[in-house]
TrEMBL record:
Entry annotated with the keyword Disulfide bond: no
GO molecular function list: RNA binding; zinc ion binding
Protein name in the entry: DYW domain-containing protein
InterPro entries noted in UniProt: DYW_dom, E_motif, PPR_At4g14850-like_plant, PPR_rpt, TPR-like_helical_dom_sf
PPR repeat segments: 46-76, 77-111
Pfam families hit by this protein: DYW_deaminase (PF14432), E_motif (PF20431), PPR_1 (PF12854), PPR_2 (PF13041)
Lineage, uppermost ranks: Eukaryota, Viridiplantae, Streptophyta, Embryophyta, Tracheophyta
Source organism of this protein record: Stephania yunnanensis
Domain DYW per the UniProt entry, residue ranges: 292-384
Amino acid sequence: MCNPGRGCKPDGVTCVHLLRACAHLGALDFGERVHRYIDENGYGNAINLRNSLIAMYSKCGNLDKAFQIFQQMTERNVVTWSAMISGMAMNGNGEDAIEAFKEMQRMGVPPDEQTFTGVLSACRHGRLVDEGLRLLEHMEMEFGLQPNVYHYGCVVDVLGRAGLLDQAYKLINSMRVEPDATIWRTLLGACRIHEDFALGERIIGHLIELKAQEAGDYVLLLNIYASIGNWNKVADVRKLMKEKGIQTTPGCSTIELDHKIHELVVDDDSHPRKKEIYETLREIEQQLKIAGYVAEISSELHDMDSKNKGDALCYHSEKLAIALGVLSTPPGAAIRVANNVRICIDCHNFAKLLSSVYSRKVIIRDRNRFHHFEQGHCSCNDYW
DNA sequence: CTAGGGTTAG
């Protein structure tokens, strides 16, 4: 960690940067080394470093450790509270996040815009409709803070998922800020869940006006048509994407083993241990099938026959990373994987079952949030 | 030079 040969010793500022990098990568081991370095060098009393540690541990999925640091702090400012609230939200402890939000006010620390980002995220992840609406109102009336498009987006998401599509649409139109493409996409996602094609197509109109060239818009459009089984329209959209040269991001997972980050992609055939990985994966699948695992085919958007779907789903990068984790760590050790896209329902089932059959905690950070799998259950509140 | 947030979809 230190470079004595050049007489250049990392200081507190260096550590702040390092912790941010660890948080971004989900590199818990390295983050822990930075933590030890901070303590050994007496940097640990600086409030910005304690706050950075809370964020790092939260973003690496170790909420207990983040909370431990939080509890040991004698001085807590708005950043401390916001970091803790966001950490609870992203790790699936929505109720705790709201409790913490109330507690900070009892302690006389006024929330700011970023605190509301955290607590409204908690409402979104926890599906807390009334709480979300109430907070959005209090934000303006009680604290004089102008909600931004993300704050509104959380409440639109919560309303939409609850099936209150009209109310969500009205909220977007009543905003004092301009709706962006993302907030329309949020509502479009809800239209897909509740199969509201009329509103869905109206929203696509708004999206095309704003920035129609984004891959995500077309993917959502695909989802709507796929969920009603209109494969002709799906094919049309795919053709359009091809013509415009629009590509979707390939799935990619990372796992940290012996202080090294291993990166795996969908259908990876370039990893030096690919033979072992695929062997382990097949062995795991056999074990899981005995326990009742059935490949979930509905998460594929292609109109293939079931057999092909079953095969295609075997090689998602998170499964490869989990297999590498199983074969590289001692029995019972936790497996931590970071994913660049959202986990699919099949890999979610796979991890859930693996956590019970192999008696391992599996912690997956996806594009959205953390999934803590333990004894056949997941901490997440989503519909799977 | 430094601390807290981030949506939909694949």
